[in-house]
C-alpha cells in the first residue's frame, strides 16, 4: 500500500535528490505530514504559518487539482500519484 | 548589455542570481527581474529610443536580455489607432486601440517570446518549449525557427485547427495533449524539471513576462510621451495586466515621463473562465481555480498564476473588472470590426465587451483618455464569427439580380 509523491526540482534538496517519494495512503494532509516526518523541511516550505498550503503551491492527486476535490482532505488511494507543482502561467 | 541585476521573489522578497529559474525555492512565489534603474536612467533617452529599431528592441535598455543577441522577427511597435467611431458607440470621449494583431505571428505573444528566446540563447539553451492555448505556440514555433532553436510546443488537443496549422508549419514539434490548458501547463511544469529546455512560460518565465512591458512603453511613446488615463487589458494568467502597469511606472522611474503616471488599469475576462474577475466582483481575497468553458481560448487559464497581483494592480490604480458572456464577445468583435476596421480574436472581443460594461457602469469615464489592448488577430479564431459573418446576399451574375436585392440610393 503506497502512494507516490512527485517532488518538484526546487524541493529535491530535501528529498536527497529523489524525484519521487513513496508513502502510506491517506489524505493529502496526512501524506504531506508523513513527508515532513520522513524528510524534515517540507512542512514549512509547503504550508504557511497558519497551516494552510502556500498560495503558489499547487497539489494534484491523480492529475486533478485538489482545489477541485476536497482540498487538503482529499483522500489518496493506494497506487495514486501526488504532484507538487509551482504555479505557472502562459497563454 | 542588459541592466537586469537579479531575480526577486514577489511573495517573500528573497533575491536570486540571474538564471533560468522561475519560482522562489522557499515559498514557491514567482520571481521577477530586478534592474539597476540608475544605470538605465543614465543610458536612455527619448532620442535614443526613437533612433532604435521598430520593434520591442527599441526598449532594450528596459528588458532583461542582451540586445546584441536579440531574436528579432519584428515583434512590437504596432499601431496605436484613434477609435472615434467606437468611442461614439460606447458613449466615451477619447478611445485608442493598441492594435497588437499586427505582430509577426499576429498576437502580443511575439513580444514576450522575442525576449524569452533571446535570454534562452544567452543561457545556452538549444531547445525552446512552451505550454500554450495557441498564440504562444505560433510565436514560439516561429521565433525558434528564426533563431535556429529546436522547439516542443504543447497544446490542448481540442485547440482550433487553425492554431495547430499555424504552429506546425514552422517545422518544430507540436504535441497535442488530451486535456485543457491547465493540464498542459502542469505537464510542462513537470517536464521542465526533466529536460534541459527553455520552457518560455516556465523556467524562463521571469524574462518572458518582461516583454509585455513594451505594450506600456509604446503607448506612452505613441501618445507623445504621455500616459493614458485608463487602460483595459485582457486577463488569462493576469501577467500582461501587471506588466503594463509596471511598464508605465518604469518609464517615470528612468526619467522618460515628465509627470508621475496615474493610469487606471482595468481587467477583462470571459465569464466562462473568470477566476480573477470573479474574485474582484465578490471582493474576495482568494482566487478559486475554474474549469474553463469559453470561446476565448487564449484567455482560458483556470488557474491564473498572477491573479493575485492583477487584483492588487486594479485595486491600487482604481480600475475595474468585468466578466462577459460568449455572445457579448462575438458582438464586441463585430463592433470593433464594424466601427474601426480592426478584426480581433476572441480575447479582443472580451476586452471590448468589458470596455462596454465598464463604460455603462461609469467605471471608464467620458473624460478619460482610454486605451484598449487588442492582443490577437481575428483570423486566429474565425470559428467564433462564422455564424454571424457571411455574404449580405447571394445573387446570379446579373444587374437585375443585384437590383432585386439592393436598393442603392447613392451613386
CATH superfamily membership of chain A: Beta-grasp domain
Q: Percent of residues of chain B in beta strands?
A: 15-25%
Q: Identify the biggest protein-protein contact and residues per side.
A: A-B, 25 and 45 residues
Tally of domains of chain A? 1
CATH class of chain A: Alpha Beta
Shape category of chain B:
globular
Neighbour order of strands in the largest sheet of chain B: 4-5-13-10-11-12
Query: Which architecture of the largest domain in chain B does the CATH hierarchy give at level 2?
Result: 3-Layer(aba) Sandwich
Count up the helices of chain B.
Answer: 15
Structural category of chain B: alpha/beta
Give helix % range of chain A. Answer: 10-25%
Share of β-strand residues of chain A: 25-35%
* Strand numbers in spatial order across the main sheet of chain A: 2-1-7-4-5
- The appropriate CATH architecture of chain A is Roll
- What's the story with the biggest beta sheet of chain B? 6 strands, mixed
Question: What is the overall pLDDT average of chain A?
Answer: 89
Question: How would you state the average pLDDT of chain B, rounded?
Answer: 95
- Give the beta-strand count of chain B: 13
State the CATH topology of the largest domain in chain B.
Rossmann fold
The rounded Rg of chain A comes to 12 Å
Q: How would you describe this structure to a colleague?
A:
The complex is a heterodimer of chains A (91) and B (411). Chain A has 91 residues and is α+β, with helices and mostly antiparallel strands. Chain A has one domain (3-86): Roll (Ubiquitin-like (UB roll)), CATH 3.10.20.30. Chain A has helices at residues 28-38, 42-46, and strands at 3-6, 20-23, 26-27, 57-61, 64-65, 75-76, 81-86. In chain A, the strands form 2 sheets. Chain A has a 5-stranded mixed sheet, with helices on one face. In chain A, a hairpin with a 2-residue loop joins β4 (57-61) and β5. The model of chain A has no long low-confidence stretch (mean pLDDT 89). Helices cover 37% and strands 15% of the residues of chain B. Chains A and B meet through β4 and β7 of A and α7 of B.
Amino acid at each position: 500500500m503506497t502512494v507516490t509523491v512527485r517532488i518538484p526540482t526546487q524541493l529535491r534538496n530535501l528529498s536527497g535528490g529523489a524525484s519521487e517519494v513513496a508513502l502510506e495512503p491517506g489524505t493529502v494532509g496526512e501524506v504531506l505530514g508523513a513527508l515532513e516526518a520522513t524528510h524534515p523541511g517540507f512542512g514549512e516550505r509547503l504550508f504557511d504559518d497558519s497551516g494552510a498550503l502556500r498560495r503558489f503551491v499547487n497539489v494534484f492527486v491523480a492529475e486533478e487539482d485538489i482545489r477541485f476535490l476536497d482540498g487538503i482532505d482529499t483522500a489518496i488511494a493506494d497506487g495514486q500519484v501526488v504532484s507538487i507543482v509551482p504555479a505557472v502561467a502562459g497563454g | 548589455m542588459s541592466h537586469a541585476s537579479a531575480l526577486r521573489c514577489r511573495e517573500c522578497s528573497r533575491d536570486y542570481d540571474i538564471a533560468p529559474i522561475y519560482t522562489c525555492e522557499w515559498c514557491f512565489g514567482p520571481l521577477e527581474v530586478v534592474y539597476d534603474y540608475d544605470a538605465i536612467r543614465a543610458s536612455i533617452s527619448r532620442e535614443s529610443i526613437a533612433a532604435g529599431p521598430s520593434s520591442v528592441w527599441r526598449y532594450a535598455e528596459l528588458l532583461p536580455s542582451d540586445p546584441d543577441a536579440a531574436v528579432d522577427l519584428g515583434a512590437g511597435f504596432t499601431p496605436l489607432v484613434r477609435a472615434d467611431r467606437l468611442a461614439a458607440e460606447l458613449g466615451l470621449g477619447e478611445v485608442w486601440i493598441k492594435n497588437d494583431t499586427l505582430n509577426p505571428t499576429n498576437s502580443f505573444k511575439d513580444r514576450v517570446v522575442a525576449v524569452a528566446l533571446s535570454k534562452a540563447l544567452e543561457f545556452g539553451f538549444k531547445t525552446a518549449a512552451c505550454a500554450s492555448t495557441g498564440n504562444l505556440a505560433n510565436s514560439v514555433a516561429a521565433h525558434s525557427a528564426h533563431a535556429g532553436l529546436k522547439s516542443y510546443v504543447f497544446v490542448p488537443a481540442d485547440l482550433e485547427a487553425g492554431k495547430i496549422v499555424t504552429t506546425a508549419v514552422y517545422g518544430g514539434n507540436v504535441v497535442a495533449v488530451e486535456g485543457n490548458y491547465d493540464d498542459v501547463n502542469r505537464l510542462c511544469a513537470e517536464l521542465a524539471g526533466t529536460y534541459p529546455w527553455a520552457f518560455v512560460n516556465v523556467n524562463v518565465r521571469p524574462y518572458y513576462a518582461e516583454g509585455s512591458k513594451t505594450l506600456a512603453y509604446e503607448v506612452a511613446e505613441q501618445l507623445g510621451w504621455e500616459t493614458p488615463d485608463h487602460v483595459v487589458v485582457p486577463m488569462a494568467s493576469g501577467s500582461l495586466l501587471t506588466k503594463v502597469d509596471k511598464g508605465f511606472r518604469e518609464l517615470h522611474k528612468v526619467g522618460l515621463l515628465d509627470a508621475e503616471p496615474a493610469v487606471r488599469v482595468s481587467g477583462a475576462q470571459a465569464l466562462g473562465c473568470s477566476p480573477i474577475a470573479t474574485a474582484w466582483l465578490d471582493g474576495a481575497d482568494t482566487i478559486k481555480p475554474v474549469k474553463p468553458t469559453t470561446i476565448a481560448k487564449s484567455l482560458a487559464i483556470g488557474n491564473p498564476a498572477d491573479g493575485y497581483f492583477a487584483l492588487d494592480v486594479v485595486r491600487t490604480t482604481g480600475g475595474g473588472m468585468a466578466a462577459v458572456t460568449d455572445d457579448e464577445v462575438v458582438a464586441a468583435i463585430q463592433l470593433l470590426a464594424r466601427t474601426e476596421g480592426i478584426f480581433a480574436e476572441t480575447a479582443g472581443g472580451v476586452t471590448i465587451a468589458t470596455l462596454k460594461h465598464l463604460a455603462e457602469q461609469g467605471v471608464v469615464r467620458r473624460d478619460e483618455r482610454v486605451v484598449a489592448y487588442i492582443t490577437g488577430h481575428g483570423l486566429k479564431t474565425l470559428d467564433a464569427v462564422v455564424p454571424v459573418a457571411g455574404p449580405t446576399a447571394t445573387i446570379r451574375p446579373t444587374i437585375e439580380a443585384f437590383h432585386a436585392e439592393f436598393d442603392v440610393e447613392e451613386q
